[in-house]
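chain below, 395 aa
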Amino acid sequence: MAAQRKTSRYVVPVAVAGIAAATIGLVPALAASGDPDLPELTAQQLIEKIAASDTQTLSGTFKVSTDLGLPAFDGLLGGIAGGAAEGEGSADPAEQLTKLVSGTHTLKIAADGPERQKLTLLDGKEQYSLVHNGDEVWAYDSRSNEVFHEKGVDAGPEEGGPAHEKELPAGPKALADEVLKAAGDTTSITVGGTANVAGRDAYRLVIEPKQQGSTVDAITIAVDAATGTPLKFTLDSTSGGKPVLDAGFTKVDFGKPAASEFDFTVPKGAKVTEGDKGAAGQKDLEKDLEKEFGGLGDLGLGGVGGLGEGDVNVIGEGWTTIARIDSGAPAPKTDEAPKEVQGFLDSLGDKVSGKFGSGTVFKTKIVNALMTDDGKVYVGAVTPDALVDAANAAK
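prediction:
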């Protein structure tokens, strides 16, 4: 256990990639070619259209391309965390879905309301399937011929839980008003023309920071003109180049999938692992995460492991918000890290100094983190200069 905790200290900069993935989220999308001629809509009208959308069923194929500006690290996170050895497969969703953090992947999806969904990750000859049907989750990895099963899964938040702490506005117009009001002076929301996505006409909703210092250049969401369903999501960085995230449908059908699509039969000879994080276990998991991450979940930064308990302060607002964490311990030295991590850390980090002292900035195209030598961590979707300025101002 001590060895695992020592190793976990070095997951902090590696998990910067995880922060980006968790913060961005996954919205199916991929633009095709052609700009259809559609009636003009204001940003408020388009947001109302999204809010009024009641899409419960769909199926299709889409691609996800992620470019965080990181060197290749496929399998590194799983190796550090004690996952399967290189070349082996695993049916654990937590390990499999980390693949989406880098590279380009093709997925097939099907959904029939909140009770039934299926996702299949197609990579080469092998495939990985994740099926949610009622209160059960099944996952199968063809490479290892392993099955993961979990029963008693909660399909949604409990009444009285976080999702019920604040009532949503009544009706699409009221919700659109709230969205635009929340954007305030820090965000520009406009309709940036039209697009054709997987053969469907769509509007482009463009969200841009007004503040200087953010690494986000723009977020563009293509919205289906007929249903109001988001079909395209692109996140561009101020550093230019390929989008940080470009995920989207190449084919989509809003019809109801066959019930048999969500059936699962354990393949012959497959090893079955039973999960213990069902509806009851989820609460224990949340408590463990809260203790381990020192409250980072409240900031949407739950992907950062190995920080331990510490004080968390929020600096700034809007797109230039920075989380300041006092880990209470000196930053680890990269030359003490495990071999498989050393080269990765060195390629990510830049040494910096200022009034705060000295430290290392670990960089991606979207989320950056400054770890000072005295154990402070500054992290946000901001430029390295903004992190240094924040650290200097804290002195």
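The first helix runs from residue 2 to 8. The mean pLDDT is 76.
thats it, cya
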